[in-house]
Amino acid sequence: MSAPGVQPRAGDQPDARVDAAFAAQPRERFLPESVRGQAALDQPLPIGFAQTNSQPTTVRDMLVLLDVHRGMKVLEVGAGTGWVLAMLAELVGVDGTAIGTERIHRLVEAGNANLVAADVPWARLVEADEHALGAPEEAPFDRILVSAMAGRMPRTLVAQLAPGGVMVAPVRMRMMRVVRGLPPHDDPDDAVVTEHGGYRFVPLIEP
């Protein structure tokens, strides 16, 4: 695990790192051809199956809150066609790991093809387990990003964080940042939760 040991370099700001990830992985590459021409619009775009590719400013806000560093192991829940997952891969770099889960098989297929084209082989998208939220068999994670709206705090995902890890998730229209404590105060129920504004997403389907 790398969370406690990964330290930002002087001048290494989350905004700059996120902007670099956006530049490296243009949104249009991950959109269906029918909406690719709308990639520059700051709004959600349909990717099929009642799912959307999220609004770029919303994605940027979430990635800045997540504060991902090189070498980390990260999870995205609800990865769609892989755009945000590819940017997470850029943020963790070749020494890190980026895993995404997606419940719709055809989006998993499309997303993995997109990741191959994006040249980030340390990222992978897997079909979500219908009986488990997240990827408990792959835990713990330094960072978890939830790209769908939860009806309640997903505590099973908090438990998949490493001590000191961070989760960003929209819950009941509010963006939540969850920080799990360090030992001996790393009980998931004692995680520190802060709110960061109102947002809208497609709903998170929980097992």
UniProtKB/TrEMBL annotation:
InterPro entries: PCMT, SAM-dependent_MTases_sf. It is found in: Cytoplasm. Its EC number is 2.1.1.77. GO terms for biological process: methylation. GO terms for molecular function: protein-L-isoaspartate (D-aspartate) O-methyltransferase activity. It is an enzyme of class 2 (transferase). Keywords: Cytoplasm, Methyltransferase, S-adenosyl-L-methionine, Transferase. Its main location: cytoplasm. It holds the Pfam family PCMT. GO terms for cellular component: cytoplasm. Coiled coil: none annotated. Belongs to the methyltransferase superfamily. L-isoaspartyl/D-aspartyl protein methyltransferase family. This is Protein-L-isoaspartate O-methyltransferase. The lineage of its organism: Bacteria, Bacillati, Actinomycetota, Actinomycetes, Micrococcales.
